[in-house]
Amino acid sequence: MEEIKYNVLIVDDDKFLLDMYALKFNNLGHHAVAVFGPNEALEKLRNGESPDALILDIIMPVMDGLELLEIIRKENLAPQSTVIMLTNETDPAKIEKAKSLGSAGYIVKATMIPSEVVSEVIRILKENKK
Fold first, then answer.
1. Which domains does the chain have, with CATH numbers?
2. Sorting pLDDT into bands at 50, 70 and 90, what band is 129?
């Protein structure tokens, strides 16, 4: 059976990580768009971008990933997207908040190498697209 290819939108404030994750997804044949920060992400989503996966960092200047997710939910942007938090934030309250906002996955960057992160995102997507 042919592997499903996903459209992925990655939101982070770390240019190096954005480029690296986008490259990892694209090298596997997926289509990854990396956006620098929440405002750029909102602009894309408000213009109709609706990825299979929305990967959000939590710790970002201006607006954190949870605030971004609240706006996405409030404005009903990309309702069919599977939201996955990819962050170094390990505060249980933040993890709970992400879940309460409908995040399907929570990956701590420091605990996985990039290829494992990509595999985990794909696993979560497959699980949620059934």
1. 7-125 (3.40.50.2300)
2. confident
